[in-house]
Amino acid sequence: MTESRPTLGVGMVGYAFMGRVHSQAWRNVASVFDLPVRPAMAALSGRSPGATAEAADKLGWAAVETDWKRLVERDDVQIVDICTPGDSHAEIAIAALAAGKHVLCEKPLANTVAEAEAMAAAAKEAAARGVRSMVAFNYRRVPAVALARRFVEEGRLGEIRHVRAQYLQDWIVDPEFPLVWRLQKDKAGSGALGDIGAHIIDTAQFIVGRSLTGVSALTETFIKERPLAEGSSGLAAEGGAGEMGEVTVDDAALFIGRFDGGALASFEATRFATGRKNALRIEVNGSLGSLSFDFEAMNELWFHDHTIDSAEQGFRRILVTEPDHPYAGAWWPPGHGLGYEHTFVHEAKDFLEAIAAGTDPAPSFEDGLRVQRVLAAVEQSAAEGSRFTTVEDS
Amino acid sequence: MTESRPTLGVGMVGYAFMGRVHSQAWRNVASVFDLPVRPAMAALSGRSPGATAEAADKLGWAAVETDWKRLVERDDVQIVDICTPGDSHAEIAIAALAAGKHVLCEKPLANTVAEAEAMAAAAKEAAARGVRSMVAFNYRRVPAVALARRFVEEGRLGEIRHVRAQYLQDWIVDPEFPLVWRLQKDKAGSGALGDIGAHIIDTAQFIVGRSLTGVSALTETFIKERPLAEGSSGLAAEGGAGEMGEVTVDDAALFIGRFDGGALASFEATRFATGRKNALRIEVNGSLGSLSFDFEAMNELWFHDHTIDSAEQGFRRILVTEPDHPYAGAWWPPGHGLGYEHTFVHEAKDFLEAIAAGTDPAPSFEDGLRVQRVLAAVEQSAAEGSRFTTVEDS
Amino acid sequence: MTESRPTLGVGMVGYAFMGRVHSQAWRNVASVFDLPVRPAMAALSGRSPGATAEAADKLGWAAVETDWKRLVERDDVQIVDICTPGDSHAEIAIAALAAGKHVLCEKPLANTVAEAEAMAAAAKEAAARGVRSMVAFNYRRVPAVALARRFVEEGRLGEIRHVRAQYLQDWIVDPEFPLVWRLQKDKAGSGALGDIGAHIIDTAQFIVGRSLTGVSALTETFIKERPLAEGSSGLAAEGGAGEMGEVTVDDAALFIGRFDGGALASFEATRFATGRKNALRIEVNGSLGSLSFDFEAMNELWFHDHTIDSAEQGFRRILVTEPDHPYAGAWWPPGHGLGYEHTFVHEAKDFLEAIAAGTDPAPSFEDGLRVQRVLAAVEQSAAEGSRFTTVEDS
Amino acid sequence: MTESRPTLGVGMVGYAFMGRVHSQAWRNVASVFDLPVRPAMAALSGRSPGATAEAADKLGWAAVETDWKRLVERDDVQIVDICTPGDSHAEIAIAALAAGKHVLCEKPLANTVAEAEAMAAAAKEAAARGVRSMVAFNYRRVPAVALARRFVEEGRLGEIRHVRAQYLQDWIVDPEFPLVWRLQKDKAGSGALGDIGAHIIDTAQFIVGRSLTGVSALTETFIKERPLAEGSSGLAAEGGAGEMGEVTVDDAALFIGRFDGGALASFEATRFATGRKNALRIEVNGSLGSLSFDFEAMNELWFHDHTIDSAEQGFRRILVTEPDHPYAGAWWPPGHGLGYEHTFVHEAKDFLEAIAAGTDPAPSFEDGLRVQRVLAAVEQSAAEGSRFTTVEDS
Asked: Which chains would you list as touching D if contact means 3+ CB atom pairs under 8 Å?
């Protein structure tokens, strides 16, 4: 078989949860979408040679590196895909951009505003050289979320009054759940706030096309200590049997706030909402209509049109699987829903198309920095008696 | 027909929306429940003789008064039911209690903490004389809400972590909607906050059996001016054609906060949630389970039991119409749902039973005062840059 | 108080479940709707003097009769409301009509086609004398069902292709549930078929404005014998402890069929759908749109408009509580839902208005006969190997 | 990279909708599941050389054949995957089995009972030689459906009383939709009946572990003639502009029936349910519990447990994404749902594992034949006045 279209080699750093999902995306994107350029799964980087080779074999990567710096240097790598915890994002991304590699970086962009600023600056400088970068806020690429954005953009909601967003999970409700890296500030930056709160901040700002300008916040760590993981479990804190370690991040973060343009915000991110597994929920109320979304039913967008005859108004369950819905036409017939990983396929598609077109993809590192600044304002407000705290200008 | 059971005469003040619903309750309660004492719809009080007579005729009241003071004095009135706007609650309730009449008072208990304190003091004093009082937070008497309370009381939810409550309406989204009394601070005390925010505060505190101890809040008035109503429309501000008046209350109020016992709170009350008609929603997450309720589907309680086999966990849609559900057994067979007004029938039942039993019904004026103090803390926080504000001890 | 409007005395026969609900309707209808004529709850008839007096006292009836024939003769009774089992409908209704009394008769109209024919003939003859009659298919008066009818009438669904209707209950799943009158053919005529199947037949025919022309059916009795009730339990078959009696009616009835106009029908009535309490569900698919309804969420009508832009199509959850929805405007504000009994209030309203206007109310006894003929065709088809059986012309 | 595990070469016939989905499965299965044997996408067969090469390039097939007979003969092909219309299934499958190739065949197994019988016989003979075959009823592999089967198998539903199944689509509601191959009896065998009716028959029989023993049916073709497709559109009937052709299959098929074991069945398959896109719905009621599923919300299984305290009963929305749910553990964390194509990945996994284990996978060709016999009984009943028709013994 001859492939007429050009390919771009991808090098991925990290092969845990995010690495698995990104692999799925690179493996499938060219079979679903008609792309101007196709990805080649060139190399996977991880610290443990054996585990990395095993992952590469299973996930479909052609080669293995045990040092991300070598990965970045490879000639067959034109795209660096960063799937590591947040503490390493800045170093890898800045190095890759400096080496002229396009960079796709998992969220949150970084663990601190300072790192995120450095990354955004590097991205800006790289863009001038035609090197592209994108932060992986994948939920923008849920077809229902993209459709929500379209409705707002078309003015279907009128003036936005309310944005209420929740990201509810329950995977650490059990106090015996161990002290994994996501519960350690030095690795993860923050807890529910940065992990899932970042997602609803970005997704909400994307949908309404507005930025949060100030917040008043509360955070809480319900379980102060957790068991250390026994033995060598990679990123989890290790310890002997029965040893406990301090949880150094938030279990839950809540804030209210304001968007430019006048809308009110009510946000909540928690890993203690028993029974809610991945409930990323956003509701937007405008003067002409409303939207509601819950990722646990990700193929549905609920839309209320306030301009039609009141006797027939009601929230519509739009099954976002029609050919004229964002991304959906490339997949299966109407009603044949998509799953979580498809958002990453869409991300890969948009990133590759932007590279081919020579344009800057979104969300940019600048967008990632903007989210980081909201996270910082939330933490500052929570630390200062919940006082209303302005989000620093980007 | 001979009626063997004693009756208590009811005198009601006000016959607008609340008066109509309360009438429905008094008219039906004895036909649904087996009561130790039955109500007699003795007299209705209103300022306009004609309109009051017409209302009494339609709603089933035996007599009419045009001065509530006369109503309170009537010998055939043992219960005074106050259905007027909040600015008159304190005066009427205190007078009625002083006259030895049991008092059922619409919510919010009053427009200010000072008034509410005076009322609570009067109620306490009256209780010592065997005179009962209750504030009409009717949503406690939705069978699903009462069942939610039962589950929490039985420990089914474990330690409560999160309470998120919203009361969403949309009836003033249109800027042409006139300046009715509910939009005027001197009549209504506050806007969405006191009208519907008060409901979710009471209902949430009732369900979890805990009190809000502090809040951080934002309020907003989206539409600053509205048309004055033309001509004599009773409680609406009057004016000539085209004249505008200032909206002096909030359109929306949001707060985050803490409950005693450690739960986090996220609350929102708004009249600008387009498409949401009467969405009083409460979700509670505990260490052992969760509950979710939306008044727009008032016969359903959603319950997640986190203690059973994880493969069969899920939020259950409990249709709260079984004989062993609160209040439901007196009505129709399973699946034959109830409506809004039934909550008032249950209220009347519980009030009458408490009077007959010589016990103090709940929610008491003290409970109403507690809600008032939360409302005051919300307003204070909103006025002071959202800083965390402690709810004054009751 | 003077009542300027005329009243009509109501005499009701039977005070079990249906009698309680009808009482609720007569007690409230004039307080909710502005009626040209008001009902007076004149007399209640039942066989047991004590129990009837107790029921009358509780439900609000002014007098008591122990023989329905006396009730029919009373001068203060202008309306006879028949709430007895089906085996007595014909005799009472025909006598009442002969006595010049307007008749409201519970469904199914009768236990046999022959009885129903006699009743329809009597009603026709009485109508010529200005005496009105109506069969109490209350589900037509659910606001959501009436709105569904309006949508079909306005052509919003285009050509009707499919009607699928289910009435699912589960109250006799337990084999220890006793042999009540509803499980005895001589009292009830049939089982699920006549009790709840009759409802979906009428409701579906009402919504689509078409009649079932032929059916192919299956019926089944899962539990062949049940315990006799001990002692004197009124209408239940009595017996000693441990005695069993034969169930002589169907537990479930299913049929497929055709409507005039070309739509296909799929119907199912059962009392063995574990977990379904009162799930009267109807879905209608037309060339231009679809409707879906489930009585367990009775304030909602789901409507799909197939004529709008496909990217924003979806079933809308219309909360049928708006002022411009059928019946809803007389009750509470939007979002303050109604319950089961309200359908009977609407029935009473429409019946009283028709009497006052001198018009024939619907559904007529002729409509009831039409349903009876469908029931008969179902039974005949089931008895003859499910062969397609034409519904006899009315 | 060295691959330590053995591979099996796959040759696929057809690359339209089913071919695209099957390709997705072969491409991903080994990256998601730990398999004893991995598939190699060896060759794709299609009639048009150019289009087939293009499809192979996009979908990831290593080679191309334009004659399926050559594909079957290839040494690098050990598995033949048949994704063509039903009229060619028998010939290809029988040839492939004869050549010692394992066969995965799309459903319905064949267009006639005779063909299906020949295929089942060939499969039986091949199985004796260690050659495996499976019919691709993919919906068995929805995790929620597999969980439903588990619940029934564990006795959680008790005695099954009712199975109601619907498969509702709307893609040919428009009379201008052209006469594609699925609307032609010679290509497709039947219409909605064989295409989607076959799915609910298999899925329902799989869940309850019982077989349909007899049916009473109706079928209908609402639109008798449709436009011929212009020009060469592969499988669509061709014709000049404006030419019409006869629709020779059913648009909708309904039947009621009985399962061995005593349950009643109510089934409906239609392409005219406006607004329903891919609503494969199954509800099962048993003496101890009930299950409900709708593919439009494919990650949810609703389960009612009738054995627990009645005050807390209710249908649970089980999000079937937990590690202890069928197939789900290999994918993403809880709440990160799957999509349509994943059912095919699971199918590929089970097929490969069965081959490796030397066992016969399910559903077998015999299972496919059983479905075919139900389809035949439905058609016969519909042709003979809906009389109850016994399903021929397999």
From this structure: A, B, C
**Nearest chain D residue (CA) to C305:** D275
Query: Are residues A280 and A343 in contact, defined by beta-carbon separation less than 8 angstroms?
Result: no
User: What torsion do the CA atoms of A177, A182, A184, A186 make, to the nearest 10 degrees?
Assistant: 170
CATH number for the segment(s) C7-138: 3.40.50.720
Contact list, A299 vs chain D (CB under 8 Å): 296, 339
Residue range(s) occupied by CATH 3.40.50.720 in chain D: 7-138
CB count, 10 Å around CB of B99? 16
At B105-117, the pLDDT tens digits run 999 999 999 999 9
C310–A316 CB contact, under 8 Å? no
Cβ–Cβ of A337/D332 closer than 8 Å?
no
CA distance D164 to A84: 48
C161 has a pLDDT exceeding 60: yes
Contact state of D275 with C314 under an 8 Å Cβ cutoff: yes
Helices C365-383 and C198-208, axial angle in degrees (round to 10)? 120
* Chain D nearest C-alpha distance from B323 (Å): 8
Whether residue B2 is predicted with pLDDT greater than 60 in this model: the reply is no
Q: pLDDT tens-digit profile of C90-100?
A: 999 999 999 99
Q: Which CATH architecture has domain B140-336+365-389?
A: 2-Layer Sandwich (3.30)
Out of 3.30.70.270, 3.30.413.10, 3.30.360.10, 1.10.10.10, the CATH code matching C142-389 is 3.30.360.10
Q: What is the pLDDT of residue D4?
A: 64
Distance from CA of B304 to the nearest CA of D (A): 8
In which band, very low, low, confident or very high, does the pLDDT at C239 lie, cut at 50, 70 and 90? low
Residues of chain D with CATH 3.30.360.10: 159-286+364-389
**Contact at CB, C342 and B342, closer than 8 angstroms:** no
Mean per-residue pLDDT, C297-316 = 98
Binary contact (B317, D315; C-beta < 8 A): yes
pLDDT at A229: 76
Residue C68: which of C50, C54, C86, C89 has the closest Cα?
Answer: C89
Q: Are A30 and A62 in contact (CB under 8 A)?
A: no
CB B11 within 8 A of CB B93: no
Picking from B293, B316, B319, B327 by the largest number of D CB atoms within 10 A of its own CB, the best residue to mutate is B316
Under an 8 A CB cutoff, do D313 and B318 touch? Answer: yes
Chain C nearest-CA distance from B133, in A, is 26
Kindly provide the residue ranges of all beta strands, DSSP E only, lying in chain A, ordered along the sequence. Answer: 7-13, 38-45, 63-65, 79-82, 102-105, 133-135, 160-168, 212-220, 225-227, 229-230, 238-239, 244-246, 252-259, 264-270, 279-286, 289-294, 300-305, 315-319, 389-390
How much is the mean pLDDT over chain A? 95
Kindly identify which residue of chain C lies nearest to residue D161, measuring between CA atoms.
Answer: C272
C-alpha Rg value of chain C to the nearest Å: 21
Q: Categorize the per-residue pLDDT at D237 as very low, low, confident or very high, splitting at 50, 70 and 90.
A: low
Residue A237's pLDDT is: 57
Which among D218, D264, D273 has the least Cβ separation from residue C254? D264
A-chain residues near B285 (CB < 8 A) = 168, 170, 270, 272-276
Determine, for residues D334 and A1 on separate chains, whether the beta-carbon distance falls below 8 Å. no
Whole-number average pLDDT of chain D? 95
Contact (CB<8Å) A339/D338: yes
Nearest-CB residue to D314 (from B312, B313, B319): B319
Report domain D159-286+364-389's class.
Answer: alpha beta
CATH 3.30.360.10 maps onto chain A at 140-342+362-389
How far is it, in rounded angstroms, from Cα B311 to Cα A40?
Answer: 39
Pick the CATH number of A140-342+362-389 from 3.30.360.10, 3.10.20.340, 1.10.533.10, 1.10.565.10: 3.30.360.10
